């Protein structure tokens, strides 16, 4: 899907991914059924690219993202990071994969420890990975705050001192601390007000340009996806029903489901027809 | 809105106070029969508190400290709690964002609709059930005679919102207050619910106050819009006029900053600098001034009135409405 030169290993490879959840019922917790949350999904994500996974609730898009992150164990298929299969990674390789991939969730308030100063929160991944000294970590925090458009003075304040948009900047700064190559954005701008949403989208675009980041952008919002992504994969019932470059898919969707999704988006342009 | 028709809802100088601050700071609204007015704005602008004040359901920390509210000409802001109880669910229907949370989890769908009916006076269980089934059918729920005996957890979010609409509309209210009715729903379900609301409005002639943050939803469902910012209406008018030629800088910038299904991709969106000010830090003068590219000393000192400008019925609260087209491009 992402155009990668022949022979180049994709940063993220997902092949026939399955994540099935058992449904247990009754006194002895017998497995009576399975929910096929992800049911045979394949895609690649190249360096510096943005692939959007879109779909409605229950489509499996978030579960796919979690499996890519290693937060959800696949029941079938495989996820490979830079050519190394997640299932056969050594501990050291798994740690390295964790460093290279970060995730940003929808709700910045719950992603931050309310009692931890913003600077400590951003430095935490560095501390956990044993990177740098206290002093060098403080320098890195200042650098990261600046990168996401916050003042270095923010480091000593608590999350409650910040607005929702600023908190999402803090979350992004923390995600950038370990210099990842991939950020999984799970509805990362969905809870933000429109004027703040565009600021964060601009930030994500600028960071990609500057740092060469790849995004796996999970979203239900087709207008946002069209704006930020290079490629799109439309999911329904755990499967990809359509995939391709954003321009192509939006101009001429081949799947009736994609067509229905695009048609259902309320449009500003239709205001002229009202009244 | 034509002057000759008496508005269903008329609100003058509504004020809601939390602590020392008027978080709803003098709002005027009017909605004609069969008309949808969209009240839009970002979180904390006061749009939901405005709606709750209208129906007398403000949270404990907030109190109405001024304003007159008329329903078909009759003052309702001075009514007793008992009288308001009769109006809610009767002449005023309400639907909220979280349909599943808004329904009683321990009561069947039919039971809840029957309860809404019973507020108007005694109905036999058999009649209540029949009318509930008919109403469920009317709001597009398949197998209504089966669904009527089910509990909310057995229904999808979209179906629960249809049940909420059935409850809100069964007594044919003259005013429907809908607070982010489709925000929690998937986009294809949202389109269905908006269509259902439009059909019911056309059928009953109800006036609709639609609270939303989604300008796309406004474009597709409302005739008129009132844009709120930090407790005040900053612009109002016909949706087509306001969207085609906004005259308040906030509206103009909002319209430009929203990603669309047309136009350039992967480029920086024209962003609005800064963030919505905290209630405690609302500036004097125009509250949008700190974020406004057109702001002058006058804006920072003196709050502009919501004056007529542009198309008929359009008003904007800005000292520099003549310069707004420059930033609306």
CATH class of chain A: Alpha Beta
Instruction: Give the count of helical stretches of chain B.
Output: 13
The number of distinct β-strands of chain B equals: 12
Report the total helices of chain A. Answer: 10
Q: Quick one: how many beta strands of chain A?
A: 10
Most extensive protein-chain contact, per-chain counts: A-B, 42 and 46 residues
Order of strands in the sheet with most strands of chain A: 6-7-8-3-9-10
- Sequence stretches where pLDDT stays below 50 over 5 or more residues of chain B: none
- Examine the coordinates and then state which fold CATH places here, giving the name of the CATH topology of the largest domain in chain B: Rossmann fold
Output the CATH homologous superfamily of chain A. Answer: P-loop containing nucleotide triphosphate hydrolases
Query: CATH topology of chain A, what is it called?
Result: Rossmann fold
Report how far the terminal alpha carbons of chain A are from each other.
43 Å
- Please summarize the sheet with the most strands of chain A: 6 strands, mixed
Q: Which CATH first-tier class of the largest domain in chain B would you pick?
A: Alpha Beta
How does the helix and strand content of chain B classify structurally? alpha/beta
CATH homologous superfamily descriptor of the largest domain in chain B:
P-loop containing nucleotide triphosphate hydrolases
- What is the overall shape of chain A? globular
Q: For this entry, what is the oligomeric state of its chains?
A: heterodimer
User: Over the alpha carbons, how many angstroms does the gyration radius of chain A reach?
Assistant: 20 Å
